[in-house]
Amino acid sequence: MQITIDRFNPESDTKPHSQTYYLDDSKIADGSMLLEVLQQLREQDPSLAFRSSCQEGVCGSDGMNVNGQNCLSCITLAKPLGEKIHIRPLPGFPIIKDLIVDMEIFYQHYRDVKPYLQASTENSHDLSQEFLQSPEERAKLDGSYECIMCACCSSSCPSFWWNPDLFPGPAALLASNRFVIDSRDITTIDRLESHDRADNIFRCRHIQNCTAACPKGLNPSQAIQSLKHAIANK
């Protein structure tokens, strides 16, 4: 198996370059994930840098671009990728080293949408008080809260590449919509107005890259459509 990895070391490189490694196919089991292949490569070359943590598709730390598609290496089977694999860092982010990118702007957009419930009553400071929902109201949140913040969606979005400082990106907008549709939240109008700008949600052209890239099977494009509809009817 031939694995080409885009590498960059800020201490010695002026720009990224590609490096090719080779692994004997017999050392790669049929059920091996790409992360296991990367770990084998790092045994050959300890300088190779990439992120990983839970190795179960839960933490979202090992997002990368593989053969042109964003994915999590820990839940991507290696052998179906073919005999030649090209691995790049997630697009649209500054590279820290090799496959590790600086995601601060991604996290800042997430913080900016205030991804927490804002429910207020006269007894809002009473910790014994519950904010109740019907089963039907709760069911509306399915598909909105399962995001693991891997950034596979946002880094596959041309609108995010072109305007990373302005366009929140699919992950942040998915999180915003989660609270817009929450029956307990009282800041719906404020949330919608924060997105009602040409350089914000209306940068989205719904090309579906984000939905195709999501390793959890979520649909950020649909959530953005829902937000646009809510803005038009607020």
UniProtKB/TrEMBL annotation:
Its cofactor is [3Fe-4S] cluster; [2Fe-2S] cluster; [4Fe-4S] cluster. Its EC number is 1.3.5.1. Coiled coil: none annotated. Keywords: 2Fe-2S, 3Fe-4S, 4Fe-4S, Iron, Iron-sulfur, Metal-binding, Oxidoreductase, Tricarboxylic acid cycle. The keyword Iron-sulfur applies. Residues 137-167 form the 4Fe-4S ferredoxin-type domain. Belongs to the succinate dehydrogenase/fumarate reductase iron-sulfur protein family. This is succinate dehydrogenase.
